[in-house]
Amino acid sequence: MGERGFVSAAEGGARDTDWDGVRLHIVSGKGGTGKTTVAAALALALAAGGRKVLLVEVEGRQGIAQVFDLPPLPYEERKVAVAPGGGDVYALAIDPEEAMLDYLEMFYGMKRMGKALTRMGVVDFATTIAPGLRDVLVTGKTSEAVRRRDKSGGRTYDAVVMDAPPTGRIARFLNVFDEVAGLARVGPVKNHADLVRGVLSSPETAVHFVTLLEEMPVQETLDGIAELRETRLPVGGVFVNMVRAEGLPGPVLDAAYDGRFDPAELALGLKAAGLADGAADASAIAEALAEEVREHARRTELEKRERSELESALVPLYDLPLLPDGADLAGLYELADALRAQGAA
């Protein structure tokens, strides 16, 4: 069992949403695993049924705009999608320089002076010599959105999803307190960092990982989970992306993997179906198909081993299908439906 007592989402059976009470969902993953796409799909799934969700990007890549097929996003919260059954997804592309100006205004009333400092390059200088400050600024902006309340006293957003840095940097990125310990021991910077740390380490936060059923992404995911546990940051679930359907019965795959698949039987079937001209043609086609079957069986066996490695981490696993037409807008809604069906949102 994992931190929250969950097992694999594939085990089936009726259950409630796994992450009830979680308001900040941080999504990390190795490059190329579809991290931004999964974060966007999770935001749609969480917003379904009339909720309001903010999707935040912190790396300056404009990945959210690309996923939703929109122009580059400004530094402001903007509605980007309507979720199934109503509900709205807003997006924010955080710019560290603008976040610094917000910080100066919030704690020192110096936004106008901050703009002058920006022109002088002081902001870039500060975040270059103290890179931890940049992470405090972008995580702080996200944490503020989590805590924010509207005029009626209710939460502005039902949930916030952060498209976070890759797995190899996620623990350091989120470990705000250690990053700024050398910058300030008292005063607004430290108070701000402590506030952010309180949000990130609370039960209202979960750090999820996106992976493929391949050796390197799986190993990075396991390493990332271990790092978070060492630093006492809240581990969420693992989204297994681009899962292929097996396509062939288990006994056939087992036979192909063990070298027991007989192309001669396939050749007879091809001739009987009229799909080959003569025995030689049927044999050649059958041998080519048999090699495809063997390769599929080897890949399936590898994926089973990698899934077993992931299960050893004792966190919830969620399968997301390989989209035949790519991760377009329709595909995002398909992934959101898959997440909801498995209890992730």
Automatic annotation (TrEMBL):
Gene3D superfamilies: P-loop containing nucleotide triphosphate hydrolases. Residues 24-179 form the ArsA/GET3 Anion-transporting ATPase-like domain. Pfam families: ArsA_ATPase. Signal peptide: none annotated. It comes from the Bacteria. This is ATPase. The lineage of its organism: Bacteria, Bacillati, Actinomycetota, Actinomycetes, Streptosporangiales.
